[in-house]
Amino acid sequence: MATNGNSSPEQYADLLQEFQEEPALCSPLKRKRSSSPPPHDSSDYSSDYSSDYSLDCSSDSDSEFEMGTAIQHQHQHSSINDSTASKQADHAPSIRIDEKAVQENFYIAGVQVKFPFKPYPSQLGMMSHMIRALSRSQNTMIESPTGSGKSLALLCAALAWKSSYAKKRKETMANVDQIVKRFAQSNTLPTFDDALSPPPTPHADDTKGMDHNDSEKKPTETKPDQAASESASASTESLTATQTVVVKTEESAASGEDSDADDFMPSSAQETKQQQMKKMKNDAHKELQGTPPSTDKAKFTGPEVAPVSPEIMLTRALARLPETVSFILNMAQTKVPTGLTDKDIDALEEFRKDDFRHSPKIYFGSRTHKQVSQLVDELRKKTAYRPRTAVLGSRAQTCINQKALKSASVDDVCRGLVDSHMCYPRTNVHLLHGCEDLLPDNKFEIWDLEDLVTVGKELRACPYFASREMSENADIVFCPYNYILDPGVRGPANIELANSVVILDEAHNVETAAREAGSMEITDIQLNALAEECRLFIKRCLLVEEHKLIKTLADTLIGWLQSEDNIYEYQDFEARTAVWPNKHTSTDEILRQVWLTRETCLGLEIAYKKIEDYIKKVRAAKERRKQQEESGMAEKKKEDEDEDEDEEDEEDEEEDEEDEEEDEEDEEEDEKKKKKKKKKEDDSPRIEYLSNRSLRLISGLLRVLKYIAPTSPFHDDYRVAIIRKPNPELFSNGNRGSRQRNRKSAASVAQLPPIINVLAFWALNPGVVFSEIARLTRSIVLTSGTLSPLDSYASELQAEFSSTLEANHVIDPQRFWAGSIACGPQGEVLEGKYKNTEMLSFQDDVGSAIGSISAKSPDGMLVFVPSYSLLYKLLMRWETTGQRAEIEVNKDIYIEPQGGSKDDFEKMLASYRDCLVKRRQGGSPATRGAIMFAVYRGKVSEGIDFTDYLCRTVVNIGIPYPAFKDVKVMLKRDYNDTHSTTPSECADTCGSQSGIVNGSVWYDIQAFRAINQALGRCLRHRMDWGAIIMLESRFTHHWNIEKLSKWVRNYMRVYNSFDDAMCDLNTFYGMRIKEDKETQNPPVSDDDAGEYDFMPLIEEELERLLEF
What we know:
The protein is of the alpha/beta class. It has 43 helices and 26 strands. 47% of the residues lie in helices and 11% in strands. The strands form six sheets. Strands 10-11-9-12-18-6-19 form a seven-stranded parallel beta sheet. Helix 24 (544-562) packs across helix 26 (598-650). The longest helix is centred in the middle third of the chain and has 53 residues, at 598-650. The protein starts with 8 loop residues before the first helix and ends with a helix.
């Protein structure tokens, strides 16, 4: 289909009319003229006519969409309706949406989506794929270039679908209730054997908090009198002798005890429990004795049995809706029950297929806490959605107890303080729940961890526990995605994946993260600490047998790890490694040798359960003791106050002075006693049960042993290894982040062993943990700018992804320059293999190339290299030759720190940005800017936003293949070689692992994903511009260019001459610099961009989607 980029709206609508009858991903755009001009400024960056379209991305033309098209397009200046406008004016900080932003309302697959501006075609494609996948309970993968508005599209699509689902759920539940009631009028309701158990608690209305403009009322619960009236015509013959209920004695009812039968009555019933009890007894007695209620004077002296009244049976059936629906559907297999229609049966089938009792919770994960913070910022500043949110973080990030923060381990000290009721912020956690700042229409309506910590400090209330409690009722929960992937973290974080929606942004690292989540490493130092704790409890005669079992296992593993008889087949300059299975010993055999048998695992699991039960009892006893002490202290305080008042009335001033002196002496004496008591307590062991570190070690070991068991489907996906290496604590710089530091004295460091031994269980298949997530959740959405190849990624994760999308970039190709340069200024071939990087001629020519590019590139510039060792090697060489000084003539040099604390990196990044801000004059590009040297896969290459002048050039040196001789890399390559087959061969042999790529392909994919991630640093929005330069001769080959991201590979220029490349690059720089100087203003953002003709892009995107 040929299209014209300058087509008028009418021509475009006519042109697409032919596709209306075709099944397609996106049906044609439908047009409706508004009778009045839009209320926003016509200078909005999208074309005027494009706002008149509504997009339906459903292949079915259902009535829901037809009704939705009646409102083809709406414009809103804010997400707050008129009724709340005055309230918003009084709380200006609560308005988080830009006043200039125009909210666009449109429909996708019948779901109304609110977007802060007219979406890009790629954003429409992303939202379409996502909404369709969520509606069908399917998984999808979306690859969209960095800077294409991916995060905003995901947030709007997810929350729009959830709001739509909540409304549909309400309608479905009401419809099913009516169907059951009609069924009860002409048929016998089921009898539940466990009828005396309480029904499930009605779920809260899921539309609450989703959107102030679209809030829904809570569904009305069925009342007993209402149910009775609606079932009055039911046949009395439907009551059978087996349908009975136990009725309490009149004495127990009078004493106020709860009746089991009360559990079946809705909380909204108009009658009180006592009235219900009397009615049930009277009805039951009437039916048993055959006497009218008015003359029935019999007394119940014990439990009596009575037939269940119709209203009680109906209430019970509605409370047990899934079982009732299954009962009706089973009857319908032979014949549609009396009173119901085929349409009713279809509605019940839909209810059973998609459990509408609970609205799915959304878990939105990204790689780091900083990226999570950016997602929260997008939600509250750019969207009209106001869901109930929660953000999960670690204790180290959220703790406000100074005693815990000053310790070496915030986690352990926090748990100890909480268990001993010595953490004041923990007791005040309820203050955060009702904090006005966190309520709708207030300052932190949509809050981030930093916001919660700020409010927590003001209220002296614990943000850590508050965030976890708030997550239970949240519509959307944000967290780093290792919280979701790692089973050991997921449980303590209260993350419930059943029927939930999981969205993982920056998911190019999910494969590696999933493998790490399924793996475990234990050091002999940790095992020694565990054995020592168990020895203490054995000595104190606490759970002796259980602690003996754990200590024996720990001692056995320590002896194996530290044995000098171990043979290490992998050796390098700092570590030696032995791996099983090998040619001589299987995994099962080596585990039996170290007492990790099935029987041991069962015994360990029983012991762990008993220890957990014991800990719960100890904590419960502490809680009771605390309550008693508080009660006693309150009484004593009142008595002391009364005594003081009496003494004050009787004593004169001289006696008061004498008493004060005596009181001071008494206080001094009491203080001395307290100090002695405290010293005595400090000298004695205060540990009451295993530390949390030990408990985590045991639970992690049990989990991984289940995965590796002979009967497990993942038995062959693991490798067991022992490693002997230098103790990394000896080489630590002492920092563990900004909020948690490693404070080891020189004496303690001297006590550290120089060598540590590690027992490792390495998962080589990310599907070990990811397949479980895919099984539990309703839908999974993976998104990133660098997921390709998508097929192999899905096969690695062992999850079925029903749809995939590779979106185009939103930037005009004229606004970026991409080229690969094979040679340096001196003619040296720039092939960044290890042997070449050792040559001085290579290092010198790379330095000359960087110097020439930095002299022409304006503003900021990033240079990526494969490793820190190569980076330091190049910088040292350039320092010697003077090339570093030549670079510094045009650019200030910044270097990404290796390791170190988060504060160190943030300071370096802030210094880099400050330098560029100062160098710019009146918005014009600065010839003298700054250059930052970084490594692939480092902090700079992922998640950092170098918008506009912060980065105008990205230079890539070499190809960052994983370390070839790394043991885990070799094992993973061998694993993939063993399990990879062609699609036709693996149909009968591979099962869920169908399509796994071989080791060499996997190795290439890891390298090019790292490159593609670095390429996106300089193009962050539609009006941005920059240059991408590959100083690598291997990118002159088309097979390597094809592995780059879609948005850049189609525009890559290949140069065999450095001078030719610089000539074209200078032309590009000159054109863009001239444009910036003419405007004398920084490039505009998406929200304020000028008018732009989106029709050619929409046509191109629609053609591609229809073709798909």
